[in-house]
């Protein structure tokens, strides 16, 4: 009888250890709309670069001779990253990487620089650095001491146009990866 009880206790002990050791991965979600676009541009015989301000969507020509025909500001996407896990696995540092996707058509080239603004989150969650410098790829961290969090930021970019490429509609794609 004592031998049988010992086997049951050892069996339950192993089950508890395996249950405690099982990974409870956090549930991360990322949303961002719309695609990056600055409207209609007429390009001359040089490569031109435009800057989109993440806070306002204001588009300014940085170099080249291209002319932007669209009079309104660019629509700047808000990227929202949400982490949810009841067991507290959101309490760690996440690396956020924003990279170039592919261009759809027209005279667009890769995005030479991404920039962010309006970084927002709740107490217990910070961005590191607090104001990431423009770059491509753009890499920064979200540091969380919370069981769950939502963080968001406005994402903009610099756009380049190759005047020797075919004309057409131009939009840029990008990816946001959180590790």
Model description:
By secondary structure, the chain is mostly beta strands. The chain has one domain (24-178). The chain is 11% helix and 44% strand. The protein has 1 helix and 12 strands. The chain has one helix spanning 2-21, and strands at 27-33, 41-42, 48-52, 59-63, 67-68, 78-84, 93-103, 113-120, 125-128, 138-144, 149-161, 172-178. Strands 1, 3, 4, 6, 8 and 11 form a 6-stranded antiparallel sheet that branches. The longest helix is centred in the N-terminal third of the chain and has 20 residues, at 2-21. The N and C termini lie far apart (52 Å). The model is unreliable at 1-23 (pLDDT under 50).
Helix/strand layout:
Blueprint: H1 2-21, E1 27-33, E2 41-42, E3 48-52, E4 59-63, E5 67-68, E6 78-84, E7 93-103, E8 113-120, E9 125-128, E10 138-144, E11 149-161, E12 172-178
Antiparallel strand pairs: 1-6, 2-5, 3-4, 3-11, 6-11, 7-10, 7-12, 8-11, 9-10
């Amino acid at each position: 009888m004592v031998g049988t009880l010992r086997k049951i206790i050892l069996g339950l002990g192993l089950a508890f250890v395996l249950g405690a050791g099982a990974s409870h991965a956090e549930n991360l979600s990322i949303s961002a709309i719309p695609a990056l676009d600055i409207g209609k541009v007429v390009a001359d015989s040089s490569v031109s670069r435009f800057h989109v301000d993440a806070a306002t969507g204001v588009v300014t020509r940085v170099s080249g001779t291209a002319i932007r025909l669209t009079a309104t500001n660019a629509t700047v996407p808000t990227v929202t990253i949400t982490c949810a896990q009841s067991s507290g696995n959101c309490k760690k540092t996440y690396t956020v990487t924003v990279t170039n996707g592919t261009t759809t058509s027209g005279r667009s080239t890769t995005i030479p620089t991404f920039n962010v603004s309006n970084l927002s989150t709740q107490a217990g969650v910070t961005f590191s650095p607090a104001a990431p410098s423009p770059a491509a790829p753009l890499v920064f961290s979200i540091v969380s001491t919370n069981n769950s969090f939502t963080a968001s930021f406005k994402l903009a970019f610099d756009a380049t146009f190759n005047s020797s490429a075919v004309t057409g509609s131009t939009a840029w794609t990008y990816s946001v990866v959180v590790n």
